[in-house]
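Appendix B. One record, verbatim.
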Amino acid sequence: MFFDQIKELDGNIKMLRDQLKSIGSGVDASLDQIDDVAGHIIALEAIMIQVLKKTDIDVEAAKAWIVEQTKGTTSAEGSTKARDVLDSLIKK
């Protein structure tokens, strides 16, 4: 009986190891996708900074657009993060 329990425990540990490997592979794939998205965002930010240096924009209208587009997904005031990014781009 003791050896049967050890055998069952060994099987469970092997199954857990396989599941952890599978989870690890999934995490690696997700990190690759996040890295791709980050690369695109950084490239777009670089382009926008160059455009903003040569073009005047209505910052308040842009903030109002952000609020309108994000107010249902974050809060009634919209995404503060998006407005912070806008402020950051304007300052560059």
